[in-house]
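Problem 3 from the worked examples.
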Amino acid sequence: MEIIIQLLILFGLLIFAIKFHNAKNTAVSPEIYIREFTITKQHPSVEYESVEFVSVEKNGISTVRTTLSGEVLEAREKEFFQGRDYGLHGLQLISSSYLNQTMLLKHFVPEDVDDE
């Protein structure tokens, strides 16, 4: 019986330590949520994003313009558009179609960023 009580106490301490450790890590690094959206030649922007469609080329290079700074960024499928407004890993080109002139984008947004 004594061994069972000791095991229960150790198990409780282990659970407490895991929860405390996770809470500490969560507070240190901001949470990130993801927005996926499509822009096209016919519909070059969406209301809640600061990026506009420019083109999709035959060679697979897709081009966008940011509405914040006017910066023009290029990427291929699965790559990130890299620049001032989105940093190195803020905006990713998931897929694109030259024939349809469309892009599926993924925006990684820190939780504490306010939308304009």
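Problem 4, a separate protein:
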Amino acid sequence: MPSYLVETSRKNYTLLRILSITTGLLLLPTAYISILSGVCLRIPGLVETITIGLLDGYPECSYLHLQILPIILSTLAIIHTIATIELLYPITSRDNRLLVLAYNILRITSWILIVQVIITTIAYYIT
């Protein structure tokens, strides 16, 4: 393999690792806020106590949970999934045919789900 291709491959791998780690770290608190706002929709007084008044009412919780967080979570999840799936390619590009088949099935399934999430998100915000 030519040296410039190896260098490009290393840069892409580093970028994918940074994207995967960053989006993974961003998904954690975002998912936690989503859980809290969902519980707030069910039991408003409980979350007001836990969050020290940050989520203090049903309107704030419903706006956060139903309008803001879905687009943030879906965007972060899509980027995280793509980066992580592509990070697995060097591991599966060896001679093990079963592993390559499993990777390709995972990759195709992930892309189908990503397209579905994008279409659903667009349709939700258009209507």
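Solution to problem 4. Residues 20 and 80 are 5 Å apart (CA to CA). The mean pLDDT is 81.
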